[in-house]
Structures
1.
Amino acid sequence: MEALEEKESPIDFNVFVGAETGIFKGLNLNTKAVIRKNINSIKTLTRDYGITALAWGNQEQTEVLVACKNRTVQVYDTDNNEYVATQQIDVGEGPIVSLARYNGVTLTAVKSGQVTLWRNNDPLEINALHTGDTLARMRQSPVSPNLIATGGKENELQLWDLEKPESSLFKAKNVRHTMLNLRVPVWVTDMAFLEDNRTVAISTRYKTIRLYDPGRQRRPVMAFDWGEYPLTCIAPVSGSGTKVVVGSAHGRAAQFDFRGRSPEVPFHSFKGIAGAVRDIKCHPELSLTFMVGLDRFLRVYSLKSGRLLYNEYLKSRLNCLLIRDNMTAEEIIPVVQKKSVKRKKNVEKNEEIDVEEENKHSKTKMKKSDDDWAALTL
Amino acid sequence: MPKGVGRWLNDVEEEGEEGEPVETKPSEDDEEMDPIFPVMGPGYGIKNKFLKRKKFKEAKVAKMQAKIEKARERFREKKAWRKAGNTGPPPTVKKEPTKLPHTIESLREPDLTYVEKDDDELAFEEATDKYAKYYEKAYEPKVLITSSYKLTGRTMAFISELRLIIPNSEFFFRRGTTVKKMVLKAVDRGFTDILVINEDRRWPNGFLLIHLPDGPAAYFRLTNPRICKDIRRTRSEITSHRPEVILNNFKTRLGQMIARMLGALFHYEPEFKGRRVCTFHNQRDFIFFRHHRYEFESSKRVNLRELGPRFTLRLQWLQDGAFDGDYEWVLKRHEMESSRRRFHL
């Protein structure tokens, strides 16, 4: 596993993706070309190395934490392009579902519900699964890193403070019974801390999107269904306290705005996805969203227009995604420009694509002057 | 000026004089040659009937005149050749060799997901995926065939013939079970694949293939099912030998997966003595199934005798789990079928 492909001058990858097969790829989206590279050597891989979670190891984003199916966490150094450490997690059962970093200490969550903060002497363990079957995901609040959210199958959303791990800060309450007085099943798949630092949104396997306000009540303040297929992931849109991007198991993704009169109507729905979406990330400054999934593509969409800006075929079924915060618009837009020129002959070449406008697709412009019209005869 | 006329004139700009197509020669900076698209006939797109007829007539006259002129030219050439004192038959003008006509298949847009040769990432994935054991010949496939809830005559006949084709397959009446329950039962009984033939209006129309124990599952739309009787064959011609399987023209990563799924229904070691061959041929995302027997007339000449049944499959979705789980690929017609020349398999 430690073996790397030939060591060259380090490439500054700005997107990392982890595949089901254990293949870990770094991508460099830049002005000239897209460089992609398998970081792990395929010869030494087995399915046990299937990547289940990725997280940044430090604030400077020079280390990547990689969680494998065989319950190891590896630390990958992006400066030197090599693995620097490996740790075996021997708590609980099942694969690691999520990773995070708190005060320079790694935080892991396994499928059987144990959330562990691996402090040097005494690892702190939280059992997030007193009731229920499995833990699906753990997320850390970007604003206050000591705050984490957990949830899973028959396990409602819970918020925990790592400073006070004895009991959960907040435990959601299931929605009311249906019209037929039947209990509504619970299966939280993913959660998103919204930027207003107050509310948490979740997606469920039972097609619902819910918004919780822990300061107000234990039941969701907003809940609605979307589509006919399970929802797999949800990500907050940076720069807005009310928007989220949601992905489904049927290859659909859409942006929702909780504000407004009809939040259940997608703000934008992102077209062209063929398979289940497994991970969504939104860029912290640019209005871009990145998605990976079972259809083996990395896709970049504009959050403003909903257009597909860029896609890359990465050969393996992708599980998780990590993007660098300091990626600039220039790194994405030239790729788009190149593509749009290729697409249509009639597009005026070298047409500048406005970065602000986020590539409103250049419409086919027929060159037609008055002389042409005058020249037309029967 | 009517709208249609302007449109037609625009089309004409691309043509030569006399309405003949101009062959676009690839310029040096163009990497790929543009396909030659069919040229619309004279009068195409004109809505005014009289104008349209006039245009057509003019074009016809011009074409005839050109033909006559060409014949005259040829006659003059021959005359001049004789006058020069030559004898014998005059030299013939060499015809240009006819080009292969373009088809939608040959104009196919190259796909990003084409399978490349010697791709170690693909080789690794295939060596470790859910069908790896079959292709290592670790187990013999055992197929459960069933129908939708209600079974009528034609579907029954179709299933009976599938039973004869697929070795080691068993038919079970559905008896109102759900697919998910059936999956659990079939795993217990040692089946490796489930095949569900759906019917609508007493006609087979769906083909659900599930690999056990934990996926993948694929659903195909089934069209043009022809049982043996329809093509004037008898079932008694189908022997119990294990057939050879040909999986043809699956080019993309998705196509490769589908080919693996279909191939794994049959035993990995064909009995060549039986000379039976089952073909799944992919063309424009339609998978055509044909069933033949080789007939050796002499040591050189071989015939193919079709045995039946026939059917055509069109992939609708591919799911990761056994009828449960995330979708790996879903056909979304309006999003995906952006071009007539873009295919997924």
2.
Amino acid sequence: MKKLIYATLAIVAAPLAAQNQDLGEPVAEGQDVETIEEDEGLSGSVSFEGNLDDLGIAIPAFATDRNVSTPANASGTEALGVELARVITSDLRNNGLFKPTGPDSLPRPSFDNIQSPVWSTWGVRGAEMLVHGYVRARSDNRLTVGCYLYDMQLQSRLVAEGWVVSPADWRRAAHKCADLIYSRLTGESPFFDSRIAYIAETGPKDNRTKRLAIMDSDGANHRFITTGRSTALTPRYSPDYKKLVYLSYIDGNPRIYVYDIGTGKQTLITQSENPTFAPRWSPDGRWILYSMAVGGNTDIYRVSSSGGRSERLTDTPGIDIGGSFSPDGSRIVFESDRSGAQQCYVMDADGSNQRRISFGGSRCATPEWSPRGDQIAFTNASSFNIAVMTPSGGNVRTLTRGWQDEAPTWAPNGRIIQFFRTARNSGATSLWQVDLTGENERRLPTPVDASDPSWGPILP
Amino acid sequence: MNTRVVTAVMLSSALALGACAKKAPEELPPPPEETVTAPTPTPTGPAVGSMEHFLAAVGQANTVVYFDTDRYNIDAEDSAKLQTQAQYFSQYSNVNFTIEGHADERGTREYNLALGERRANAAKNYLVSLGIPASRIRTVSYGKERPVALGSNEAAWAQNRRAATVTIN
């Protein structure tokens, strides 16, 4: 076995700064995850040639060499093996991918059979694909999780990988296995091993409490970052997941703060008396865009994420706000009402070459550039639906039909869009996602009402 | 009992003086005997500069101006209201105030924050044109975050597209 070590930051919790009065306890996260190549020289082709929606995948419980207690599961690694397979099954099923069958209706393979399945056991179950995996407790208390994908018809292994994770990160191993299966069978980039920042909402419509919250892509490991003492809005994860930018009314005015997840401390994005809105990271994490109103007129600025002087990118008398970088960081799509109503515009990253791209007759708001670069998602602010178009404004397709849908955010692989939906009259809010075909629309589970989702990239 | 009420009045007066001195240090505080030596605790109405006092003086309806969808212009009705406000703030020249800009729910969140800021500033600029110093006026936008009318219909939205003046005391 060849070990590839992906070092990520071990973030240490630090005491709360006194001035951060709306912040809860810092969230400890960011343990190392080692990736292990389970073997080399795997077979190339997949036998299945039909619609991937019809592809049956059997995902029995992961085996263990020896059932030992682990902080990841009080009942031991045997029970954890069942949970791992359940998470993978849920990942695929909830996203409308394939036809997965989970561990609760399948026999459990033995540890010895993980690398050599008993084909006769699985052949009768009608699944085209078979997932096997194992979980093993290490002497250093971490866990090794292996993930294998087999083609039943060819009776051959398609892909295999393993990870060493801390017990607290066991779900990440399941998401990585789901990503491995998904990527191998579709040719698409992974997206499950990622997190979402959003705003948790409670209370009546005229007195809503809005808290900054984070969760895994499947809704697990939910944490509140702010206490709700003041309104928090529009968070965005930094690409390395070390920071969050968001709007807070903590000092009575809407201002953008950069919150350091490891230390639990936050700083103002700019030392100005003016209100600031709509923060965005550049894909490389080096820049932050924000919008600032001066004398009532809002323009877009950029500042180095390490601090320093801000640079103004727009200067029209209209509201210029938001902004989303192209994946290569060279261009920015943003929103402006300089024409008289909200429309989408593209400019170079230094503010030059500003030109309107939306001409459909509807208002175009909150544009977000796909991580693949080929699409821009936006809110149709006339009908309040989520739509996509090409970066030149062509081929507009409406994907949702809620009473009020807004604020699209892309999955790390650019195949799924999340947004939030507001109910008429009650004002109840919820997170939803839809794929690029406009199908597989579903509500995301959140403990309370939810808005302003922001989907981060694949975890480092 | 009476002693307690007198103490309370004295305390609140002292707080009000402190707040005034903080906001406008160039203003001389009123002579202390005005409040401290008040012989009886008979209610004398709301304190100058309190929201209650402002509402009583100008009338509730004149404290809020309303806007059309996506608009922020001050029309004839708005200017009449703002002139009434300006008279009050000219008379009580040590009263500072906030103009809160709001939008209806039928807009995207971030744009509505910018729109609320624009509306608050439109009202502010009009008051400044009437001679109220800009240094006395704070603006804040709440976008669509603080509706007063809770329905999802045109009548409710019209109530929520507003700039509301609130005294600071």
3.
Amino acid sequence: MPKILVVDDEEHIRLLYSEELKEVGYEVITAESGYRLLETIEEEKPDLVVLDIKMVDYNGLDLLQDIRNRYYDLPVILSTAYDTFKEDMKSIAADFYVVKSFDLTELKKKIAMALETRLPT
Amino acid sequence: MAFYEENPHKIDSADIVAAIPSFSEAEGIGYVVEQVDRGLREHFGHLKSVIINCDNHSSDGTKEAFFSAPGQVPRMYLSTPPGVRGKGNNLRNLFEKVRELRAEAVVVIEADVKNVQPLWVKNLAEPILKGVGYVCPLYVRHKYEATMTSSIIYPLLRCLYGRRVRQPNVGDFGFKGKLAEVFLDSPVWTEAVQNFGVDIWMTNIALSSRMPVCQSFMGGPKVHRVKDPYAHLNVLFQQVLSTIFDLMMVYADFWKQVKWSKPTALFGTDVHEVDTPIPVEVNAARLHERFLEGYDEHSATWPRIFDQTVVPKLQEIHGMGLQHFSFPTQTWAKILFDAATAYHKMNASERGTLLDSLLPLYLGKVLSFVKKTERMSLQQAEEYIENECTIFEENKPYLVKVWE
């Protein structure tokens, strides 16, 4: 069962993502901030990270850089309420992005694509 | 081995090699040498560096301009024999020298660039020293700059090799010294690779080498001294496309396994001031004319190359006027997939005709892109290209099927 780490400082988003993604068969763990995120990834070894861009104390795009520099191939999906982040070059290091919504169809589709992505090792 | 070598400092090893390939660049190479020299001293002063000019035996004083430019880093000059031209031949001499010097990192910057900065050297070399295998720069580009990259090279390479490298044939790059060995061992060393095809050839080989690839943001556009993007279009188009198709045959077992694509790591995001792109004017009416002329000249060839659904679609596109012109991306992806497959299966002597027949279709695709994106910002046009890449990826199973 693929393990997904949801990083978001809004509790209702963590709950929503968690419940809906568990329903379709994923194991879900959550983090409420970017604090010790790399350590969490090291310990939990998620198969994919859903990362909020704008958190109170953390910039998701900076966290994305940290993740990508250490975990070259770990899929990261950016989750955001606004699409202005696309002006920031750093966003191209993400596998996908989704606009936050109560309908998680797009997020589930992107998660499935990211987990299906196959490159020869 | 290079036909001719001047190594006045008797350099026999180096940590970093900065290479400047050239042909008749006496006027501009001095500036590039000066900036590269500064970049090496400012950012890698603790390492052993050398600047190498890989030249096509220029007779305009390129070598003298290279050696006389201000700077402190030791220099070396390599040359092909008289009459032997092509950036690929220059880089082959470089690969052999890199192997001999056992260099850890190699940076290549073209000799005709007007706005090189020391930071470019840092952004191309530092990721290599941190463990990356190959670095492609990301320059700031206008939405209509490098349309061959946007409409063919990027979507095709991305769906084949699974990495999103946005400017894979920009001409400058960084690579791990060990990769020089891989380049020298490549079974594909055609006339196209010896010339315009070498940039895409290197990136293609790097992508299939399984070494980590990253992109480095350079903070501005790349400005060539003199560059008319359409001056060598026919030759450039043939050489780049044939190189991609030739390598598809070599790496078929690799690309058939790839599904969807992944991003690369990104370096250089700490650039604070970002320059704006240089405006590019496009003559839509001329593109349309060339599409129509090419249609008349080559449409008899297409039924032998393309799937039966493509030709009626091309007839439909041909019938559209300039005002409503549109070239669906799904049709375009199928055209390139069918063309690659036909290229693979046909005699080498027929391939030139096939490639020639694709040029007007490419110009039609560019026209369609221009019309769709004329009111879009750079950002929106980039998103449009990303969506086109997804269409290529979605249609890849078709390529795998017809290839076999």
4.
Amino acid sequence: MSHTVEALHHDDGSAVKEIWKVTGILSLLTIVELVLGFVMMRVDDASLRLSIKGGIVILMIAKAFYIVGYFMHLKHELKNLIMTIVVPLALFIWFITAFLYEGNSYKNLRNRYDPYKKAQTEIKVHKSEEVKEIKASGE
Amino acid sequence: MSTVTATAAPTKLWGGGKSPFNVEYGKLMMWYFLMSDAFTFGAFLISYGTIRFSSNGWPNPNEVFKSFPFAPEGVHAPLVFVSIMTFILIISSVTMVLAVHAGKQMDKNAVVRNLILTIIGGIAFLSCQAWEWNHLHSEGAWWGANPFLNADGTQSSTNFTNYFFTITGFHGFHVFSGVVINIIMLIMTLLDKFEKRGHYLMIEKAGLYWHFVDLVWVFVFTCFYLI
């Protein structure tokens, strides 16, 4: 196991080089995320918007990997330590899947069995008129 | 014979007398604290996602977060201000790594320099957030008050503002405590506490916390401003 321990202390130059490399990657990923965000403003198609959102989430996870792996140095720790941190966090896969499914299911059931509520959420509000009304009633 | 030596080496790691994780006790506990904190933030964000998935409409973040300091009223600059906040936090994370690295080299001046830069970055981020909160509040948004309409023009519930202020507030509080921790680290460095101890492991622990704050912002930024 001595080789692993030695790998934790790499020499000065390469460590600083790695920091700047990761900084570049994080900045690049953020810029791509922002570009996708700006592209999404001009897209009206629902399924295309959803796939752009999926792309943004993948980039977000990549950024998280670089921050935890290199800035927090977890990638250079022993495998035991990595596993004791990462394995419990795998619960998130189930949490996210279950809760988002549940939320979506609740929406569909309510829309089906509570038509009044559904109609209420479909009323368009004209903001400028609403403001005028409030002002008028105030006077 | 070779298999015997291969299995003998890892057992030595768990043979007692030293940390099987090859890290100091405090650093390991910091990792476990951050893991529990990740579950707290995860619970907040998943709750937000669940409510959003159960709603028929939701405000368009590009219509809500479109302002910029000192810009004329009614300017439409979505994502611009929040991307500046994101880069401030990324850069302050980089200076923190450099401080941790300098600590490993026992380079006190570099530690002090990079810690000061990190603290400035943290204060800059908090100032940006204070401006944004103040601006949204002046538009009528607060806990229990949502002046924004859904993207499809229907009436929005207060869920949007409640979640926004709670989660960015909780994150902002983490940034604030991170800045306080970094200031304490700076004072301890200036008082030569770590020089006397012979190591800068404390800076590494503070660094882990600071990177975690940056990590959470990656998720908050994506969930509230981009998606």
